[in-house]
Specification:
homotetramer; 114 residues; mainly alpha; 61% helix
Chain lengths: 114, 114, 114, 114
């Protein structure tokens, strides 16, 4: 199973936008707003559900909403000239410093409370 | 510039979680909630800014917050056994049907209003 | 205990804005965006907590974040000339029709699935 | 025009819940999550719109979504035993300290940057 996102798929997402001449609407602000709306739609899947809800019951919806979130991540990265992979690696590095294994092991606190 | 997310980086994200023994906290509901919070932090970059804000002015913050969103996308995909790349391609296909080029070209309406 | 919001307090919220000459920034879009950010801050209180978290443990933060949400509700109502009380009563009426007691009693489904 | 929310209306909102026996679902966490979803629905009204969108064009939708947000504010205040009016007044007081008129006049910065 692939965990990442291939260059091919990312390029398809950008092409989908360009074939429709939509870049003109894609201010970073509206893309960030749209990403937030899609994240809320994903969250809606879990409204009134116990925390023990397993993914299986709602897998199709989760998959679709998650794809919408990824879609906007790629579009934001594109208009802002951000390399998604490097950005992720850099942030991971910062997170490793904020959450050192010996302090964060098995603890769900924010770094500021560790 | 890479637009996608390599398998390597996605695997690093999962390993970051496992080294800290955090999977126990990662119910799909709480991951979706966390994704929503990170999307809001990205949106905050644009609070009170004109729509004409260009990315350059805030690129470091955008990069960091976007990476946080991607981070949770990978974690949700992992706990829900979702193949992020296939999910994205399937959704693109559905979007192509909802937004046919001839109807959607240069129009920023929802498919239900096209 | 007061459940509502007095005219006096609502007027104070508007005055707070006017004393700082902030109305110029308050486009409906940015106010809605800000409301969303405040709602996310309230939600953050519950990140990684069980659904059984009682309010007592986090009451001060909940109180403060909830007040921020109410603050923006009043400001949006003000710039959009919306009577918050009438709007609420009208929506309640619509909700009574969408969720008739006999169908909705003890059921946490969306009206579209009742 | 009323800017506040009467006790009567707030009580109606609570009664709407009780007539449907819904309090059993209303954990603070799920209410906060629901508030966030409603705030996102309000924000959706402004997706792809210029910042210069005036309320008139979308007033009915804004009114309805805003009422949904207020609805959940009242329900959270109820289950958490929060006096919405006092909470708002206390937060205003804190905001007056964080944003003194002489520093904040005509400036849209966060207090931490003033």
């Amino acid at each position: 199973m692939s965990k990442g996102l291939t260059e091919d798929t990312a390029n398809e997402i950008v092409r989908f936008r360009d074939e429709r001449n939509w870049k003109q609407f894609h201010t970073p602000k509206d893309l960030a707003l749209s990403l937030c709306l899609e994240a809320a739609e994903l969250l809606e899947v879990f409204q009134w559900s116990g925390t023990d809800l397993r993914c299986e019951e709602k897998k199709d919806r989760i998959k679709e909403e998650l794809a919408d979130v990824v879609h906007y991540c790629v579009l934001i990265a594109d208009v802002c000239d951000i390399d998604l992979d490097s950005a992720s690696r850099e942030k991971l590095q910062r997170n490793r410093e904020k959450y050192p294994v010996d302090k964060a092991y098995g603890v769900s606190k924010k770094y500021s409370e560790l």
